[in-house]
Write a structure and sequence with these properties.
heterodimer, A: mainly beta, six-stranded mixed sheet, four-stranded antiparallel sheet, 12 strands, globular, B: about 110 residues, mainly beta
Chain lengths: ~120, ~110
């Protein structure tokens, strides 16, 4: 089974509108972390936001917020007031507890390509 | 100053050659990683080192050999390059053992094998 599922290969949003990028995850580990990264056309991977499995509040970073629904195992990224510069690939990722040796591995989803329309 | 820097940014080479990609981080992290991103943008972990010790080694051909001379550097050497090795390779680093383990990435090295 896929550990991280992003069901939207591509999305469009009008500039200044909000957009939600979906992410569901699968783990039996009680301790895990969820991340979103942005990859613009220039290619670099930019960390956006983090949510821990024990965090009570949804994470927010500026215009980014993470809609964490633990029972549904979803961690959707909400971008408010979209800007042209938000056009990029967005990857959801999960860090599961501690693997053998005490170190964690991060698994990435397949990404969603977001295009912001003027 | 770039936090995680990789060189070169682009690498074009012939099949059968040997090449290296270098990575350095100045974030004071103790864990470093190599990822491969294929043409469909799928990002997969290859290796991870913590304090110069190999801790993650995914199913990667043994033509790929990582080397970590110190905890700020993790280089990737690839022997006998094949067409299927063409991809973007990302180096990343994190503070291993922390509860968040946020990984910070370099800009990537686009490898093209002809």
């Amino acid at each position: 089974a896929q550990k991280i599922t992003q069901t939207q290969p591509g999305m469009f949003v009008q500039e200044k509108e909000a957009v939600t990028l979906d992410c569901t995850y699968d783990t039996s580990d009680p301790s895990y972390g969820l991340f979103w990264y942005k990859q613009p056309s220039s290619g670099e991977m930019i960390f956006l936001i983090y949510q821990g499995s024990y965090d009570q509040q949804n994470a927010t970073e500026g215009r980014y917020s993470l809609n964490f629904q633990k029972a549904r195992k979803s961690a959707n990224l909400v971008i408010s007031a979209s800007q042209l510069g938000d056009s990029a690939m967005y990857f959801c990722a999960m860090r599961e507890g501690f693997s053998s040796g005490g170190y964690q591995k991060v698994t990435f989803g397949t990404g969603t390509k977001l295009q912001v329309i003027p | 100053d770039t936090a995680v820097s990789q060189t070169p940014k682009y690498l074009v080479t012939q099949m059968g050659n040997d090449k290296s990609i270098k990575c350095e981080q100045n974030l004071g992290h103790d864990t470093m990683y190599w990822y491969k991103q294929d043409s469909k943008k799928f990002l997969k972990i290859m290796f991870s080192y913590n304090n110069k010790e190999l801790i993650i080694n995914e199913t990667v051909p043994n033509r790929f050999s990582p080397k970590s001379p110190d905890k700020a550097h993790l280089n990737l050497h690839i022997n006998s390059l094949e067409l299927g090795d063409s991809a973007v390779y990302f180096c990343a680093s994190s503070r291993g053992g922390s509860s968040k383990n946020i990984q910070y990435f370099g800009a990537g090295t686009r490898l093209s094998v002809l």
